[in-house]
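Working notes for the structural subgroup meeting. M.R. asked for a predicted model of this chain before we commit to crystallization trials. I am recording the input and output together here so anyone reviewing the notebook later can reproduce the run.

Input as submitted:
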Amino acid sequence: MRLLVLADTHLPARARDLPGPVWDQVDAVDVVVHAGDWVEPGLLDRLEERAARLVGVHGNNDGDELRRRLPEVARVDLAGLRLAVVHETGAATGRERRCDERFGPGSPDPVDVLVFGHSHIPWDSTTPGGVRLLNPGSPTDRRRQPRCTYLTATVGAGGLADVTLHALPLRRPR
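Returned structure, recorded in token form:
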């Protein structure tokens, strides 16, 4: 099972559309995961139509319609991999401890992988309890990062593999 992991698309505030390579991945993968900050519901509509399967949450910049349509936390089982998605996990300092408390083995509903967004900073770490934490950055708003980014991965036999951070070409200003 192939995954595309996105967050912080901020359309149309930061870009008119997702970059072409991201749409190519939407068409190629089995599941698109979006960790919030869509900003306008148009992208959600388009991904619901085009993606084979979509798992998403709302973020702090998402208005009432997106908050009605999307949960704050999404949990799914993907071929035995327990995946959760949330927009915010708080400051980088202490993130692994906080995420273990909320999503780790001792929590009421533990997961194997937690996808989050908010910071626009790619992140890939594992908590002491074994939860893999992933932030794809942003495909449209690089902020303090050298490039806009997204993640791809594969799921098989209950595990996550081939996690790859993709850096997009720099785009010309609007």
